[in-house]
Amino acid sequence: MNPLATIGYERDTLEGVIGRLGAANVEVLIDVRAIASSRRAGFSKTLLAASLAGAGIEYIHLRDLGTPKPGRDAARAGRIDEMRRIFSAHMAEPAAMAALARTEALVREKRACLLCFEADHARCHRAVLAGMLARSLRCEVVAL
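Above: the chain sequence. Below: its structure as tokens.
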């Protein structure tokens, strides 16, 4: 089983992120933001997808794996445990469960990476999501 990677773009450029993905041989980037837009240049859905395609990396946005607004608000305020509780409850929703199953299939087939904003994997819902996937797929998680 390939390792599952995670990446945050908070302190990086589009070129830097694509470089890190390429160095890790990532084949598919799974955008797990609830809202795939960004004030950071290049990280809104359409431009990000086009830039990744140019680098030979598939892009998939699974908004149902994003943190609900109360969880994002808690994370911004530094209440990480609260964000994790909100996100974990969200993952019991049918749409989130379906998106998780789709992600499991992608991770089984390709070298995959989860993307969100936060640079620190441990302070992001990516850590919760990656932990769920690591347990079900018995794969290693690598923060890029």
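Residues 94-109 form the longest helix (16 residues).
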